[in-house]
Amino acid sequence: MLQDQFGREINYLRLAVVDRCNLRCTYCMPENGLQWIKQNDLMTDEEMIRICSIFTDLGVSKIRITGGEPFVRKNCIQLMESISKLLGLLDLTLTTNGLLTTDYIPRLKAMGVKSVNLSLDTLDSERFYKITRRKSFDKVMKTLESLLKHDLKVKINAVVMEDENIEDIIPLVKLAKENPIDVRFIEEMPFNGGNTPVSLKWNYERILEHIQSEFPILEKMEDPKSSTAYNYKIPGFKGDIGIIAAYTRSFCGDCNRIRITPNGELRTCLYEEHGINLKDELRLGKTDDELKSIIINTIKHKPKDGWDAEKQNASSAESHQSMATIGG
């Protein structure tokens, strides 16, 4: 089992398969997009499968496929099917914006995917367009309907933004009343690909107070080990509510996660500025054992938390990155 210097077991890998996205969400990237990673600098399917295999050999049992939008990558579903067959992998999950997902849902279920995180910041089509700069709300709702129809566990991820979607918090909570949906509200983070400042007024405490003002019977649940969310339930609701303190970073203490960026960088913390590039090491001819040694040594130096990682950065460049290039 992989362990860091604080004795934390690392068993969860977030694999970003592409940086490109078919939305332009204001909290993630500028309207005209980003300077995309060149095709040759992206990992190939074979490289991703080999790297994932090395991690499962080292004890990683959960892999989440992220992006960008994963299904913008050609043959992403075939890549996922290959990864799902790796020995030692117990849990393969997906984070998607839902625009291209619907047709793949039967194959996701067939390969053993049990849970899908769906990005959905509003239930209003006009606000959806304002936030994402695309008129694709109906496609996302169709995907949500299909996921539920196929009995896949759905977690909705909603980034809470001042003056953007505050009026959507309560309607999103109500989605969990009649549907087995976990709705999770996320503090806005500084990874928007530009210099746009982030408002911290809607932090974990304020989001919680807002929900409690409508649902005073909100009950705290026991949070699973290494959970990023503070979890709550409302009596009579089929789904649960979660709040992720992504910017205030109060959940970092028992972190079990690492991530691979689309160009192959291993990052042991979301707030790290850089990481070692496993794709480059692989292309230099490193053996699996040599790559394992690199991974083990890198994880040994995983920061204590996001604040520690930020202090170790050489510059403030992390605030100008995008979640699409880090791995959402």
TrEMBL record:
Residues 312-328 have a biased composition (Polar residues). GO terms for molecular function: 4 iron, 4 sulfur cluster binding; cyclic pyranopterin monophosphate synthase activity; GTP 3',8'-cyclase activity; GTP binding; metal ion binding; S-adenosyl-L-methionine binding. It holds the Pfam family Mob_synth_C. Pathway: Cofactor biosynthesis; molybdopterin biosynthesis. Binds 2 [4Fe-4S] clusters. Binds 1 [4Fe-4S] cluster coordinated with 3 cysteines and an exchangeable S-adenosyl-L-methionine and 1 [4Fe-4S] cluster coordinated with 3 cysteines and the GTP-derived substrate. The keyword Lyase applies. It comes from the Bacteria. Belongs to the radical SAM superfamily. MoaA family. Monomer and homodimer. This is GTP 3',8-cyclase.
